[in-house]
């Protein structure tokens, strides 16, 4: 089963990486960019019987720093 | 307008970060994880009239290394 974990910084948390990308875009001449936030996209290939609770536990224990990050679990259809 | 850019390594490209996460998950006792791929999730807040071509150019010039990475542009509905 394919699972996608979207990890992004909580609103209000300073995002230096996003700032740097924003400045670089402006330096390349791309106007009209108001804000940039950079997060992580983790694609897992797990056994079909992996439960939502186990996925959440993986996120809380390792994949996301829940103090400053939010995570969203997107389960793709299991390959038939 | 909110835009999400999903940047992930091309299939076949070695993913040391994904490997490290995979080993760490196994170390924490999570069995049943077959593969882990780590990519970037870039959330842009851009002017509503930003074209798809401009977004692709941002990706090709800065946001993704097209030699080893694929990118996918996901445009969210413009806030009314």
UniProtKB/TrEMBL annotation, chains A, B:
Pathway(s) this gene product operates in, as recorded in its UniProt entry: Purine metabolism; IMP biosynthesis via de novo pathway; 5-amino-1-(5-phospho-D-ribosyl)imidazole from N(2)-formyl-N(1)-(5-phospho-D-ribosyl)glycinamide: step 1/2
Keyword list, A-Z: ATP-binding, Cytoplasm, Ligase, Nucleotide-binding, Purine biosynthesis
Cross-referenced InterPro entries: PurS, PurS-like_sf
Compartment(s) where it occurs, according to its Swiss-Prot or TrEMBL record: Cytoplasm
Enzyme Commission no: 6.3.5.3
GO terms for MF: phosphoribosylformylglycinamidine synthase activity
Recorded catalytic activity of this chain's protein: N(2)-formyl-N(1)-(5-phospho-beta-D-ribosyl)glycinamide + L-glutamine + ATP + H2O = 2-formamido-N(1)-(5-O-phospho-beta-D-ribosyl)acetamidine + L-glutamate + ADP + phosphate + H(+)
General function of this protein: Part of the phosphoribosylformylglycinamidine synthase complex involved in the purines biosynthetic pathway. Catalyzes the ATP-dependent conversion of formylglycinamide ribonucleotide (FGAR) and glutamine to yield formylglycinamidine ribonucleotide (FGAM) and glutamate. The FGAM synthase complex is composed of three subunits. PurQ produces an ammonia molecule by converting glutamine to glutamate. PurL transfers the ammonia molecule to FGAR to form FGAM in an ATP-dependent manner.
PANTHER family xref list: PHOSPHORIBOSYLFORMYLGLYCINAMIDINE SYNTHASE SUBUNIT PURS (PTHR34696:SF1)
Self-association and partners: Part of the FGAM synthase complex composed of 1 PurL, 1 PurQ and 2 PurS subunits.
Family as reported in the entry's similarity comment: Belongs to the PurS family.
Name of the molecule in the record: Phosphoribosylformylglycinamidine synthase subunit PurS
Organism of derivation: Pelagerythrobacter marensis
Lineage: Bacteria, Pseudomonadati, Pseudomonadota, Alphaproteobacteria, Sphingomonadales
Encoding gene, per UniProt annotation: purS
